[in-house]
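# step 3/5: fold
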Amino acid sequence: MGLNPLRQAGMPISHRIDRERRYVFFRIWGEFSTAEIIAAITQALTDPDFKPGYNVLSDHTGVTRVIQRDQIEVTTSVLNKFRTALAGARWAMVVGDSDYHWGMLRMLSGLSSGVPVEAQTFREEAAAVRWLEEVV
């Protein structure tokens, strides 16, 4: 199953849902706006294939402009709106080698601590997948 583009004109965030693995996969690349973040999260978490408690794996390795503090605050607010659907899930964010991106997504994890999803930031996808598949 391929990634589903959110907008024909090249939206820099796409998602796909794997019902068998109970995952939502996001791929984020290039630059993105706050409105695109809101649209991506909303579209994925209201997708008919999404079920409450699905884990999330987001690949941020292609991002060229790191998420900003105001975008983190909006993202936290959007995640709070979906708190019931996210309850008990894990969200693994893969950033690659960018220390700045690592730090900003760690900030997102901290600020979204009121959302009942456990979030972690990883350098590589294999480690993220291992963490998502751990029995808790």
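# step 4/5: annotate
The two ends are 28 Å apart (CA to CA).
# step 5/5: archive (pending)
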